[in-house]
Amino acid sequence: MRLTDEDIATAGELALGLLDKAEAAQARARLADDPNFASEHAKWSDRMVAMEPLEEEAPSPAVWSRIDAAITSQPRQDNTGTRLRIWQGLTAASFAVALVLATMLWRQPETQPVPAQPQILVAAIGAEGGRESVAANYNPQTGALQIIPISLDTGTLYPELWIIPEDGVARSLGMIDPSKPAVHSIPQAMRPHLHKGALFAITPEPEGGAPGGKATGPVIAKGAIDTI
């Protein structure tokens, strides 16, 4: 029986250790009875083994200064009363989460011949404490950007997503829904700015977005775009 996207996600989450105790026990029991599920789990386990030698490397101070300068062109309003300390690097685990989600979105049925797949761009957009807040994957050929909120809280304000390419100018990609995944169509004129090395950032803003396209809230999460 062919695995569903939910089955694939469960196998990946089991390999990554993202399931709670009850879910993990149920998934492990399935390994003995479902060869396809066991095979999918083994694939993700192999990927995780391949990633183990990776060491965390924090971006240079110049990168964070560039983000801060791009986003803070106006005085900030802090909706929590204390400014969040920005997470300073992608972990291998958070990148793996983005990899799982990207694979789910772009996966094609293995029994059907398909053309060469485009290179997918991914980002783990992180918050304080090293926990990934949002996973993102982007298809440059179609302009489809999938946003998957994992843990994102902006209080009474609303999260707005920004892209910061090499010119250091923050450009709004619009508001995102913190409660569920969604696919956004990136306008043609904006697509050249979404590439490897460009930076995503999220700020809390009033309903409808930052006035005049200038961020007013603090950066609560950010992450660099990479390839898979």
UniProtKB/TrEMBL annotation:
The chain crosses the membrane at residues 86-106. GO terms for biological process: regulation of translation. Pfam families: RskA_C. Keywords: Membrane, Transmembrane, Transmembrane helix. Residues 93-219 form the Anti-sigma K factor RskA C-terminal domain. One of its GO terms (cellular component) is plasma membrane. One of its GO terms (molecular function) is sigma factor antagonist activity. PANTHER family: ANTI-SIGMA-K FACTOR RSKA. This is Anti-sigma K factor RskA C-terminal domain-containing protein. It comes from Sphingorhabdus pulchriflava.
